[in-house]
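Q: Sequence in, structure out?
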Amino acid sequence: MAEQQTTEAPAPSPPAEARRAFTQKPRTQKIGRVVSNKMDKTVVVAVDYVRRHPLYQKRITRTSKFMAHDERNECREGDLVRIEETRPLSRHKRWIVREIIERGVQV
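A: Exactly. Output:
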């Protein structure tokens, strides 16, 4: 009896969604106003957000300050900027300036 040999095609790869591919989550972006640009390549950006008081339900505006990297020292005080989170760049800097949305008024 002759043995019949069959050549088997390689198994197709699983669909893209079944593969375990590392997908990076989108980085957080915030919009705030530059309050200080006295450091070299660093600005301090104040971001306001609104919360309700737990008992009285009154709107309360809170401010958080973030140090952001400004590579070309373009930002001035009063500018409205978009910042994006990034890897730690120094002890306090974890944000980078992505764009200047609006220039501040210079007095």
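The beta strands are 29-39, 42-52, 59-69, 80-85, 95-102.
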